[in-house]
Specification:
Strand order of the largest sheet of chain A: 1-2-3-4
Structural class of chain B: mainly alpha
Distance between the termini of chain B: 64 Å
Oligomer: heterodimer
Radius of gyration of chain A: 20 Å
Order of helices and strands of chain B: HHHHHHHHEEHHHHH
Strand content of chain B: under 5%
Radius of gyration of chain B: 25 Å
Helix content of chain B: 55-70%
Strand order of the largest sheet of chain B: 1-2
Largest sheet of chain A: 4 strands, antiparallel
Chain lengths: ~350, ~300
């Protein structure tokens, strides 16, 4: 059938990645499993739990308090205990909450509350033990666009904070984290859908959108902070990071940009050659960035055009965020590829620390 | 190779579709309907050429079979006579093929662009980003609304209405295109096409996003309209006029034709060849078609007296 090349579309795997908390590495796999590894005796497994059948995971695991959380495409949020509680070993206590609508973005946890957005266009605030819903926005109905990005909570005091999130309706919202009430007179409107996790800085919120622009919005007023947003060659989907007044963000145009956080002007950039949908990572003075073709680059944070080490190639697609851990001797990067392979490389030179681990 | 395909066919159609969706306030369903009609009308000259060539080939099939019987043992002579026949009727043997070759990539690209634009999953949406132009209208419109009427265009029709529509419209189109032939083998092949083709596409529609089903239905309806203006009702009309199992029914059909002043396409036994104005052939002679025998009471030769104006 000549139509078949167009029939199937891109296959769906999920792209949840790794999170390091303490001495534990949490990996959310393509098979819908959550695994905890002991980083001191790596790759010894501490525990693993299979989520419900057919689950796909897009957001990375989030550790808060004595729990690790992950949201699934089936609309279920899971939490497992990370420490021993009574007779229960880590991973034994599972709680969940069903939202009945797919979760693509990740979860943020703060103020004893779990914040998550869904494809129906509603942001939920649930209690940390997943026993009750505290509030939702909108209170009735839903936004016109899906919420596929991860919300970001900025805690400003005891029981005080603001949650920022973007939606496919082109708007960036700021809500009171405790009550769910809006903080700005109007949400900030970009010219395209927003799927990235907002980065909260000292006085601005930074995010990219599908209109191929990267924005800085004043936290207090919700108005544009830069003279104009920074334009790229394709959508922004992944989250940005900040270090020493410089924003680092990757785009689906295959480039990672370094922008002055105050003005939005580009200071340098690096062309990775394939869409970047994993957030970059800074270890020391090295910016580590991965592109969808499975290539990992270590760049100078002060000048992205300077490569600190030769490109490491995973030889399989990469879309997941990766994590770093200092084992006492060196900084190590953990990267989970789409073929369910876990790579471990040294942050200072990009060399493999051990053979890749197949997680199936 | 894939890049060339995307640049020349897929990306332009995809971006135009997104622009149309924006024009229709984000309604992707209407954009699919509109673009399908536009593309089919744009391909009209080629489509007409193909329809005429196909029909011409069908019409000369009896003559071709005669030649094959006559020169079964002389391939060269058969080949010569066949080419003479083609020339006499102005037929290019490849006339059915090249129009389809031109149209095929367009249909495939349209099919693929609908699939890409729907982008139901995160992976598909991310893939879509690599096919869009930098136009602000395009990037400001995606992701597209997937709701249209009772459908979620990114998912199969849960009520199976669309697969039924696809099957029915395709059956109609196939029926209209079916050749006039008394050859049992050809008739059988035609009947198989009329059944299998619609069933196959109805089944495909059940499995794939309903946005594709809308494309199938609209494409078939446009095809039916084009077919009607080129060849009339074709197989549908013949079904009505040639089935006359009883004398009374046959007489009724004949009388209706006389009253309406139409030229009957029911031929008479032993009648001489007559010239008729054919919508395609014009003034060219057309061979009489065999019909069921009729006998009118009191008449020995079975002929029905004609009261047509042109006699």
């Amino acid at each position: 059938m000549l139509f078949l090349p167009g029939c199937s579309g891109a296959p769906s795997y999920g792209w949840a990645g790794t999170t390091v908390a303490g001495d534990v590495l949490y990996v959310a796999t393509m098979d819908g499993e959550l695994i905890a590894y002991d980083l001191i005796n790596f790759p010894q497994k501490l525990w693993s739990r299979t989520l419900i059948t057919g689950e796909r995971l897009y957001g990375r695991p989030v550790v808060a308090g004595d729990r690790v959380y992950i949201g699934g495409y089936t609309g279920r949020i899971y939490s497992f205990n990370t420490i021993q509680i009574g007779d229960y070993e880590p991973g034994d206590i599972q709680e969940y909450w069903d939202l009945d609508n797919s979760i693509v973005g990740g979860i943020d946890v703060a103020l004893d509350t779990v914040y998550v957005g869904t494809s129906e266009g509603v942001l939920y605030a649930l209690s940390a033990d997943l026993s009750e819903k505290r509030w939702q926005y909108p209170t009735a109905g839903n936004l016109e666009g899906k919420i596929w990005g991860t919300p970001t909570v900025e805690v400003t005091g005891v029981d005080e904070g603001t949650v920022y999130f973007g939606s496919f309706d082109h708007n960036l919202y700021a809500l009171d984290a405790v009550t769910g009430e809006t903080k700005w007179d109007e949400p900030f409107e970009a010219q395209g859908a927003i799927a990235s996790k907002p980065l909260v800085g000292d006085d601005a919120v930074y995010f990219g959108a599908f209109d191929r622009k990267f924005y800085a919005v004043d936290k207090t007023t919700g108005e544009l902070k830069w003279d104009e947003p920074f334009p790229a060659g394709n959508w922004f989907w992944t989250e940005a990071i900040v270090s020493n007044g410089t924003i680092y963000v990757g785009s689906l145009d295959g480039k990672v940009y370094a922008l002055n956080a105050a003005t939005g002007r580009k200071t340098s950039s690096f062309n990775a050659g394939a869409p970047i949908n994993s957030p970059p990572l800074i270890v020391g003075d090295i910016l580590i960035v991965g592109s969808s073709d499975g290539k990992i680059n270590g760049l100078d944070v002060d000048d992205l055009e300077v490569e600190k080490w030769n490109t490491f190639s995973m030889k399989e697609p990469l879309q997941s965020p990766f994590s770093t851990y200092n084992d006492g001797d060196r900084d190590v990067i953990y990267i989970y590829g789409r073929n369910s392979t876990l790579f471990v490389i040294k942050a200072n030179n990009g060399q493999e620390l051990m053979d890749p681990i197949n997680i199936t | 190779m894939i890049d060339i395909w995307n640049i020349i066919f897929l990306n332009p159609l995809l971006n135009i579709m997104v622009v149309l969706a924006n024009f229709f306030a984000g309604n992707f369903g209407i954009a699919v309907i509109f673009l399908t009609i536009i593309v089919r009308l744009g391909m009209l000259p080629v489509t007409l050429k193909q329809l005429r060539s196909t029909r011409a080939m069908q019409e000369i099939q009896p003559k071709l079979r005669e030649l094959q019987k006559k020169y079964a043992k002389d391939r060269q002579k058969l080949s010569e006579e066949t080419m003479k026949l083609y020339k006499e009727f102005g037929i290019n043997p490849l006339g059915c093929v090249w129009p389809m070759l031109i149209q095929l990539p367009i249909w495939i690209a349209l099919f693929q662009s609908i699939r890409q634009a729907l982008a139901a999953s995160p992976e598909e949406l991310m893939s879509l980003s690599q096919h869009l132009y930098s136009w602000a209208v395009v990037n400001g419109t995606v992701p597209l609304q997937s709701n249209f009427l009772w459908l979620n265009l990114a998912w199969p029709d849960p009520y199976y209405i669309l697969p039924i529509l696809v099957g029915a419209t395709m059956w109609l189109q196939q029926k209209m295109m079916s050749p006039t032939s008394s050859d049992p083998a050809q008739k059988k092949a035609g009947t198989m096409m009329q059944i299998m083709f619609p069933l196959m596409f109805a089944f495909i529609t059940m499995q794939f996003p309903s946005g594709l089903g809308i494309y199938f239905v609209v494409s078939a309806i446009v095809g039916i309209v084009i077919q009607y203006f080129v060849t009339g009702w074709g197989g549908l009309a013949r079904t009505k006029s040639t089935v006359a199992p009883t004398y009374r029914q046959a007489r009724k059909v004949v009388e209706e034709r006389f009253i309406e002043g139409e030229t009957s396409d029911i031929e008479y036994e032993d009648e001489e060849q007559t010239e008729k104005k054919d919508p395609y052939w014009g003034d060219k002679k057309v061979e009489n078609k065999p019909v069921a025998q009729r006998k009118q009471k009191g008449r020995k030769d079975g002929r029905i007296r004609s009261k047509r104006k042109n006699r």
